Request: fold
Amino acid sequence: MAGRRTLGIVKPDGIVNGKLGLILAHVERAGFKVRAARLVRLSRAQAEAFYEVHRGRPFYEELVTFMSSGPCLPFALERADAVATFRATIGATDPAEASPGTIRKLFAESKGRNAVHGSDSDENAAREIGFFFTEAEVADLAQ
Ligand code: ADP
Reply:
């Protein structure tokens, strides 16, 4: 059964471009409850660890440099069928290919600077939430 949690990140371009509030409003309108959130500046080592699965891909260096270039906002979300619904809410990786009304279509600049991250499976959602938040931080707010 699909899980109720996923991990999103407003990436540095979304914050630098002043879209943080608009993006969070869009997320809430899509029916998600924000269970935990924190503004962080990732070190290069943290960005490398978060995107470990992409190590060796042609865009890995660019991705790690970009994700550690400024503040970002990881947030843990809850709603039914969270992973698939959030992926649909953010749209395709390349904003040029994203559907109208999706966050990436509305707020992203390019495939590299695409405003938001969303977990791609329940397993990765659990790993990624755990990367940024303790279970207590997520659970304490879940009432
Ligand atoms: P998604 O974030 O849509 O799940 P991927 O998991 O394929 O996409 O890639 C992770 C992130 O790596 C993307 O969100 C994007 O920031 C970056 N990325 C992927 N492909 C490219 C590319 N061809 N050029 C630059 N950056 C890329």
The chain has one domain: 5-132. The pocket of adenosine-5'-diphosphate is lined by residues 54, 59, 62-63, 93, 111-112, 114, 117, 120 (CB under 6 Å). The radius of gyration is 14 Å. Helices lie at 12-16, 20-29, 44-50, 60-67, 82-90, 103-107, 122-132, 135-139.
